[in-house]
């Protein structure tokens, strides 16, 4: 027994001794990694043992713990945006490291879907726009601020209305009926970016994105190819815009910033219309030309009988455009504060914006608040909160293509009439001096109606993250995007609508409410590891649940007792009301894996599986994969020692994305309420299609990234080929079926193009000068439809039926009409091409006469700084696109309608045989000379000085005397100068806001505004 105990004791001693010897051969090193710039801790720093497979990452406090062998070893520290550092360790056990910021953009951190990475490791097509690029742009929406900032992104404001609609298209239009808007994501939350208003105000829509304050934006990432977008699956086909807002920083003292801006605005151009005497001469000439063709005296027209009496009719000379337009006043105030310690970081801001529109009675006001909070509860558990709220009040006016639109009526109105009588009262429909339909009194149409839209947008998200290990983390987020509106309108008897006999002629009012809430839960598990120094692997898996629900209601009333009683409760007849509720959902699973070998060969693969309630029973789910590869040639032996090359990377990607942004229930055969002979019942509304599915876009991309001289000069070049099939398209049906169309998946659209982005640091010293240039081209084409027959869209057009066509082989936005050949020098009549050769000019001679798609778009920014002064100049351009100046179908209409004024171009009309001109003769009631033709289509190319900003930062030695931090005084101007051949007021407009098939039409559209602003920013 004793011998057995001695043997057991000997074995135990030997075992303990063996493990003790092993333990003696290793040691633990701890430490903290901070930024050399501001001493802030850096979480997520890779700490690896050089020459081994051991590696860890720092936690949220910047702390790390790693086990290494005894003796001399080397630890390598690397982090995105910082210079890597190696530390030789002999006998120390505590190693604290300060990392320096990298001087090149290659190491900047960028957001890519659900993760972040270094710029140099990006192998997808994406563009980053920093928040400081937006600070000098006094625009109301983040989407509008992207204009000209990113290659492949076409941004156009529909009009100059504050808070108005903005169209964003990334790499071309991919859909006909479904939305072409990109997916907008703010701090990981997908947001609604459409119109707030339910009511029609002509072609002008408003914009939910205008409820955000651009000053709260830290950065914007635009994802453009499948490799970047496929992680968003069924919602990624139109591109993804990731907006990251500002957050506090650890170990930063509380900083307070106050910014104030004030300025004035005016339209970029006012059309030159004829005076009273000029238009009267033209009208009498039109009547004389009409009479010259008559063979019977009784068929002739007396111009005096039409009220065209020289010296009487032209006794009044009103410039109606000047009467309804004004110089607007702009002001914005913002206060923000941020700071934090090792455990808690915060950012808080509030702002007020008041923008007086250039049209009478038009005004947009906005209040915003934002609060971001990050808290480290323990070394493993952290929380985050982001809240944003925007409240808007939009005093709107009818405009654009509305029958009684203020701006359109002012353009059409004859100068013979005045807005006010001798007692300074507005002329109204009951007054004999009221000019009547179709122009009315534009001033009264601006001042008398009450047309208010109150909007609110709330964005909230709560996230939690748990670190099982330093490189294995679970993150979950709950968020909500809420959009609400209230609309209150009243048109008194002094307005066109309020006086219509068809509604009783005693006023018209309407009230409506709407709400749209989107709830999202996403849960993501991320993992990253390094195997030796050569292999780096990271990946994620996640799932999302999305639910949206919307409720809208409205009521209309008429026959009010007096114009002082303006609400629905006072209406004599409340004869229209409605309410509607709809909801939809999306359930998704997704994953991503990234691998790189020696920072030389890079690979990424993503996949998403989406199920949508918007599609048929057999087609609810879809799979959207992508893959990309990159080859960093700079790391090859033949280039590694070439000093002037900082980076050279070739990359390619391929994958699929989808589009499910259509209305709800469209796969169902729906029924609705109807009435017959005074009884209510139900009837069929639409046909069912159980096979309805999302559009699918196949995307291929090849890119080249090059940087020279430590980032002093860099450029990116991309080429892509995208094909969208299974278009969500409402196929027209014969009227005999009882239904107008069937929602299906028919046709395909192609988008091919290239993009080029260049950045240079021309001088980098006391005087600094940088240049940013981006140029892109997209070729859009309809590849197939349900049949070869063209589909007509847009406005009705004299002589040809419609202004636009959807046709195989042509791009979306194609204009349709007769080809104008000029003026017959003998007769003065218009000449059109006999396209079908039958010897007659009919609708069958209509053909393609242009398209709204530009051949090139881009922007150029130069920034200078020296001794406290900073100057930036931003040029934005569009080349090769056509604009249909459809307003000229009225304002240059060769006598078809004598009730409207004309542009000055009418003075070069044909008047006698032998005259060579492009304007036909004016003849009363002649419609032939006013057929819709290529005469209305103009070159819409333009080069615009979009923004100029000048600032001066007062030296700290002066501001410190009054206990201030930095103080910057600045002035900025937008849309100051435009070079264009377009004869309309502004080439950068589109009356049918949001339309794909009928884009690029200028139909009495309010032009963009030029704004000059002065401001001061103070940091405490």
How would you characterize this protein structure?
There is one protein chain. With 1020 residues, this protein is mainly β. Helices cover 8% and strands 47% of the residues. The protein contains 10 helices and 50 strands. The chain has a 22-stranded antiparallel barrel. It has a 5-stranded mixed sheet with strand order 10-15-16-13-14, with no helix packed on it. The longest helix has 23 residues, at 2-24. The radius of gyration is 33 Å and the shape is globular. The relative contact order is 0.12.
Strand and helix layout:
Layout: H1 2-24, E1 26-35, E2 46-49, E3 55-57, E4 63-69, E5 73-78, E6 85-89, E7 97-99, E8 109-112, E9 115-118, E10 126-130, H2 142-145, E11 153-157, E12 166-170, E13 183-186, E14 189-190, E15 217-223, H3 226-229, E16 240-245, E17 252-267, H4 276-292, H5 320-324, E18 328-340, E19 344-356, E20 363-376, E21 381-395, H6 406-412, H7 442-447, E22 450-469, E23 472-491, E24 508-531, E25 535-558, E26 573-597, E27 601-612, E28 621-632, H8 637-640, E29 645-659, E30 671-676, E31 679-684, E32 695-708, E33 713-725, E34 728-732, E35 741-745, E36 748-764, E37 767-784, E38 791-797, E39 801-806, E40 814-817, E41 820-823, E42 830-832, E43 847-851, E44 856-866, E45 869-879, E46 882-884, H9 888-891, E47 937-939, E48 942-954, H10 956-959, E49 967-980, E50 1009-1019
Parallel strand pairs: 1-7, 13-16
Antiparallel strand pairs: 1-4, 2-3, 2-5, 5-6, 8-9, 10-15, 11-12, 13-14, 15-16, 17-18, 17-50, 18-19, 19-20, 20-21, 21-22, 22-23, 23-24, 24-25, 25-26, 26-27, 27-28, 28-29, 29-32, 30-31, 32-33, 33-36, 34-35, 36-37, 37-44, 38-39, 39-40, 40-43, 41-42, 44-45, 45-48, 46-47, 48-49, 49-50
């Amino acid at each position: 027994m004793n011998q057995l105990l001695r043997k057991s004791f000997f074995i135990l001693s030997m075992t303990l001794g063996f493990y003790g010897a092993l333990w003696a051969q290793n040691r633990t090193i701890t430490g903290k990694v901070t930024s050399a710039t501001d001493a802030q801790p850096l979480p997520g720093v890779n700490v690896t043992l050089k020459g081994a497979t051991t590696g860890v990452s720092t936690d949220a406090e910047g702390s790390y713990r790693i086990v290494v062998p005894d003796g001399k070893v080397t630890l390598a520290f690397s982090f995105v945006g910082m210079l890597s550092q190696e530390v030789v360790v002999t006998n120390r056990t505590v190693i604290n490291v300060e990392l320096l910021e990298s001087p090149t953009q290659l190491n900047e951190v960028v957001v890519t879907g659900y993760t972040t990475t270094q710029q140099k490791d990006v192998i997808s097509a994406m563009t980053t726009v920093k928040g400081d690029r937006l600070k000098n742009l006094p625009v109301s929406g983040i989407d509008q601020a992207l204009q000209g900032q990113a290659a492949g992104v076409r941004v156009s404001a529909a009009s100059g209305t504050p808070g108005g609609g903005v169209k964003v298209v990334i790499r071309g239009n991919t859909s006909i009926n479904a939305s072409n808007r990109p997916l907008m994501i703010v701090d990981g939350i997908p947001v609604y970016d459409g119109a707030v208003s339910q009511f029609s105000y002509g072609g002008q829509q408003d914009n939910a994105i205008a409820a955000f304050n651009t000053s709260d934006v830290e950065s914007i990432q635009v994802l453009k190819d499948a490799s970047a977008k496929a992680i968003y699956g069924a919602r990624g086909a139109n591109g993804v815009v990731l907006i990251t807002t500002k957050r506090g920083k650890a170990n930063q003292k509380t900083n307070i910033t106050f910014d104030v801006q004030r300025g004035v605005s005016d339209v970029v151009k006012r059309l030159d219309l004829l005076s009273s005497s000029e238009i009267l001469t033209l009208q009498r000439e039109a009547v004389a030309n009409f009479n010259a063709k008559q063979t019977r005296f009784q068929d002739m027209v007396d111009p005096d009988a039409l009220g065209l009496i020289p010296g009487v009719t032209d006794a009044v000379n009103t410039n109606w455009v000047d009467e309804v337009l004004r110089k607007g006043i702009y002001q914005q105030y913002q206060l923000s504060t941020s700071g934090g310690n090792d455990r808690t970081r915060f950012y808080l801001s509030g702002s007020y914006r008041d923008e007086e529109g250039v049209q009478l009675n038009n005004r947009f006001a906005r209040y915003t608040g934002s609060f971001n909070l990050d808290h480290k509860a323990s070394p493993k558990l952290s929380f985050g909160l982001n809240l944003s709220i925007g409240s808007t009040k939009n005093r709107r006016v009818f405009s654009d293509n509305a029958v009684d639109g203020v701006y359109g009526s002012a353009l059409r109105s004859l100068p013979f009439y005045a807005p006010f009588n001798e007692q300074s009262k507005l002329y109204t429909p009951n007054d004999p001096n009221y000019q009547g339909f179709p122009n009315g009194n534009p001033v009264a149409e601006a001042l008398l109606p009450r047309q208010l839209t109150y909007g609110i947008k709330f964005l909230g998200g709560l996230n939690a993250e748990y670190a099982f290990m330093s490189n294995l983390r679970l993150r979950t987020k709950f968020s909500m995007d809420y959009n609400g509106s209230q609309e209150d309108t009243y048109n008194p008897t002094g307005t066109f609508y309020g006086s219509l006999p068809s509604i009783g002629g005693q006023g018209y009012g309407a009230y409506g409410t709407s709400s749209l809430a989107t709830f999202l839960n996403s849960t993501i598990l991320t993992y990253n590891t390094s195997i030796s120094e050569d292999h780096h692997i990271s990946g994620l898996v996640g799932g999302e649940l999305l639910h949206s629900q919307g409720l809208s209601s409205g009521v209309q009333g008429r026959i009010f007792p007096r114009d002082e009683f303006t609400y629905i409760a006072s209406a004599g007849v409340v004869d229209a009301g409605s309410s509607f509720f709809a909801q939809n959902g999306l359930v998704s699973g997704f994953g991503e894996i990234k691998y790189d070998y020696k920072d030389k060969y890079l690979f990424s693969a993503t996949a998403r599986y989406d199920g949508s309630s918007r599609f048929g029973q057999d087609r609810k789910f879809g799979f959207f994969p992508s893959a990309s590869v990159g080859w960093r040639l700079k790391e090859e032996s033949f280039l590694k020692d070439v000093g002037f090359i900082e980076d050279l990377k070739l990359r390619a990607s391929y994958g699929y994305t989808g589009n499910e942004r259509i209305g709800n229930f469209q796969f169902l055969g729906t029924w609705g309420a109807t009435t017959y002979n005074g009884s209510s019942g139900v009837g069929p509304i639409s046909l069912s299609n159980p096979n309805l599915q999302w559009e699918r876009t196949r995307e291929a991309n090849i890119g080249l990234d090059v940087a020279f001289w430590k980032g002093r000069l860099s450029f990116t070049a991309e080429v892509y080929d995208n094909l969208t099939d299974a278009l969500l398209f409402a196929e027209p049906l014969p009227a005999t079926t009882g239904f107008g169309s069937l929602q299906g998946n028919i046709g395909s659209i192609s988008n091919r193009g290239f993009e080029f982005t260049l950045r240079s640091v021309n001088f980098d010293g006391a005087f600094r000068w940088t240049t940013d240039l981006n140029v892109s081209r997209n070729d859009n084409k309809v590849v197939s439809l349900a049949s070869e027959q063209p589909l007509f869209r847009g406005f009705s057009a004299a002589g040809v039926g419609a202004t636009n066509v959807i046709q195989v082989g042509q791009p979306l936005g194609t204009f349709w009409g007769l080809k104008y050949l000029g003026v017959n020098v003998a007769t003065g009549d218009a000449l059109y091409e006999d396209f079908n050769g039958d010897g007659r000019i009919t609708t069958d001679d209509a053909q393609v006469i242009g398209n709204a798609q530009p051949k090139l778009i881009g922007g150029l920014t130069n920034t200078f700084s020296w001794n406290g002064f900073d100057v930036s100049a931003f040029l934005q351009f569009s080349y090769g696109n056509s604009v249909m100046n459809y307003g000229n179908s009225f304002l240059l209409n060769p006598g078809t309608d004598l009730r409207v004024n004309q542009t000055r171009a009418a003075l070069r009309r044909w008047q006698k045989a032998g005259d060579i001109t492009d304007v036909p003769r004016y003849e009363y009631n002649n419609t032939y000379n006013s057929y819709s033709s290529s005469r209305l289509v103009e070159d819409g190319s333009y080069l615009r000085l979009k923004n100029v900003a000048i600032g001066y930062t007062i030296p700290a030695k002066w501001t410190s005397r009054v206990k201030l931090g930095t103080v910057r005084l600045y002035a900025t101007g937008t849309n100051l100068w435009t070079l264009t051949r377009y004869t309309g007021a502004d080439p950068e407009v589109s009356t049918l806001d949001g339309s794909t098939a009928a884009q690029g039409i200028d139909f009495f559209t309010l032009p963009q505004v030029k704004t000059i602003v002065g401001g001061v920013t103070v940091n405490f």
